[in-house]
Structures are given as C-alpha cells and as structure tokens.
Design goal:
five-stranded parallel sheet; binds guanosine-5'-monophosphate; binds manganese (II) ion; 2 domains; inorganic pyrophosphatase (n-terminal core)
Length: 317
C-alpha cells in the first residue's frame, strides 16, 4: 500500500525537502507547514522551500522557517510534493524534486499527473490538508494544536469556508476534533478568509468594475494587469478571491479571471454546477479541480480572453 511505502521512505530518509505549487494558497502553505512541523518531531533535517508566501499565513507555526531558496547543489534523500497536480508547477523547484533519491506526491487535484515514485492522490478530498490527516495518523504523528491550525487553514481556504461541494463529514468531524484540542477555529477562519489586505481590496474594486457577463450571463469575465498591481502596490497573494466576484452572481456558471504575469496571462476559472473547468484548462495545458482550475495563456489579453471564453462556452448547457 502506498501509505506503507510513504512511511518507510520517510523513516529511511535523513534529509527531506517539502515543496508545493507556485502562487501558493492556504492549502499549499497549510499542508507544507503541517508536514514540516510533523517531521520536525523527528530528528531529521527538513527543508520547506516556498519562494513567495502571502503574509496572511504568517501566524502559522514555523512560517518564519520557510526557505525562499536553496543551494543548487543540494541533493535530498526524499522530496515530498504537497497540493501540486503537476511537476511543472513546483514553483521553480522541480530540480530538487527530480534530483531527490525518492519522491512522494500527496495531492487532491483530479488532473494529477502521478509524477512521483509514490503517489497518494485522492481527488474526492476537498483539500490536501484533509488527506494529510490520514497520512499523519498513519505515520504515527501526534496532531498538535499547531499542526491542527496548519491543516485547518488548508481546509478552510480550499472549501471556501466549508461551503464548496467537496466539504464532507470528515471535514466537519476533524474541525470539531480540532475545537476539542483548543484550536480557535473562528480566529483561523477570520485570518485566512475574512480579513482583506489593502492590496486585495483595491484589486477587488478594479476587477469588480471590469466584470462583464457573456453568453446570456452564464460566463463572467474580468482581468487585472501588472500595471494595476503596481498601482495599488499589490503583494503576493493579493489576487486571491477575485475570480469569485463573478461566480457568485445569479445565473453565472463559469467565472474567469485573467491576471497578467511575465509575458503571459494566468487564467483562473471557477464553476458553480456542471462545467468541468479542469477540462477547459487542460486544453491550455493547465488543470485543477472540476470547480476550480487554472492555466497559462501566452497571448495578449484580448486573444487570451477569446480563447478561454470560446473553450468554456462549449461546456455550457
Ligand atoms: P487558482 O485559480 O486559485 O490559481 O487555481 C485553482 C486550482 O487550479 C488550484 O487547485 C490550482 O492548484 C490549480 N491550477 C491553477 N493553475 C494551474 C495550472 O496551470 N496547471 C494545473 N495543473 N493546475 C493549476
Ligand atoms: Mn489544494
């Protein structure tokens, strides 16, 4: 069984690296720090490398120990990728993954490409952090209040605060158990979902202003440029949630956000009831989940918009 292999490989390794996807969200950071804090209970040498981390997660235990970079020549005994569906998305650190003696991939993306030696992937789990509950228990790790906060952060962000369809009995049971060990669920919720940074607030205004409805109101579209981000002095992660502005409007099935990056546009797609946006994004070499997915489009804004909308509209009823 994969979990036996994972346990054995972790026990054997003495130098381990934890990696996650680029543009990391609460599930990426929560699962990385949960695993880091768990493995720190052993006397192994553990690195967690995430080059750009939104500051809103700085309340999590060991946030300050996240490495932004690592010596190129470092070779790890074991590399663990968390919340990452595709090796291409390992945030510029695929090298450490590929160079490691053994690799593990723990994830919940339906489009996961099974890129490791041992893949523990469950697309039914609403968050990678929810899979980690099972993994950590199997490893015999004591889930402390600090580890619980990391796991809850991923669960809350990836379930949109317990509201997305993937939210399961286990989600509530685990959260209830966390309350029992003293985790302040309300406070974690407020920190990761409610508080808006000033940059996010300013970008929300811009994206809201540009929101347009197409295809009989079934597709919502908006965008932000680099210039916008510079103007409002946006920080890492300040674009989070912008794609939901359109998704929540009556009649909308697919919401699309295009965000300008270096020489390309990053597409973020969300759907409400039936469009599989992971399938839409796969047409552009991206992927994700049925109701939340992303891709990169190397084209100017207008063309990127048309290509995405043309693809998305094929899936409308
Ligand atoms: P977001 O729109 O929040 O950036 O991403 C939504 C979901 O799609 C996340 O689970 C994210 O990991 C995944 N995702 C975003 N962009 C890509 C991409 O380019 N490729 C793949 N495989 N998944 C992506
Ligand atoms: Mn996730």
């Amino acid at each position: 069984m994969t979990l036996d292999n994972i346990k054995e490989e972790i026990e054997k390794a003495s130098h381990i690296v934890i990696l996650t996807h680029e543009s990391p969200d609460g599930d990426a950071i929560g699962s990385s720090l949960a695993m880091y804090n768990a493995l720190k209970q052993t006397n192994k040498k553990i690195d967690v490398i995430i080059p750009e981390c939104p500051e809103i997660y700085s309340f999590l235990t060991s946030y300050d120990e996240i490495k932004k970079e690592e010596n190129e020549d470092t070779k790890y005994d074991l590399a663990i990728a968390l919340d990452c569906g595709d090796i291409k998305r390992l945030d510029g650190f695929a090298k450490y993954f590929e160079d490691a003696k053994v690799t593990i991939n723990i994830d919940h993306h339906s489009s996961n490409t099974m890129f490791a030696d041992f893949n523990f992937v469950n697309p039914d789990a609403p968050a990678c952090c929810q899979i980690l509950i099972v993994v950590l228990e199997f490893l015999g790790v004591t889930i402390t209040k600090e580890i619980g906060e990391c796991l809850l952060t991923g669960i809350i962000t990836d379930t949109g605060g317990f509201k997305f369809a993937g939210t399961s009995r286990e989600t509530f049971e685990f959260t209830s158990w966390l309350l029992g060990i003293g985790v302040n669920v309300s406070e974690v919720y407020r920190r990761v979902l409610e508080i808006k940074t000033k940059g996010n607030f300013a970008l929300t205004r811009i994206a809201m202003d540009r929101l347009e409805f197409l295809e009989d109101g079934k597709i919502a579209f908006t965008y932000i440029t680099k210039e916008d981000e510079e103007k409002v002095n946006a920080k890492t992660g300040d674009h989070e949630g912008l794609v939901d502005l359109g998704r929540t409007v009556e009649g909308v099935e697919v919401s699309i956000l295009l965000r300008e990056a270096d020489g390309f546009f990053k597409g973020s797609l969300r759907s409400n009831e039936y469009v599989n946006v992971s399938d839409v994004c796969m047409m552009f070499n991206g992927g994700g989940h049925a109701r939340a997915a992303g891709c990169s489009i190397h084209a100017p804004l207008q063309e990127a918009k048309e290509r995405l909308i043309n693809e998305a509209k094929k899936h409308l009823r």
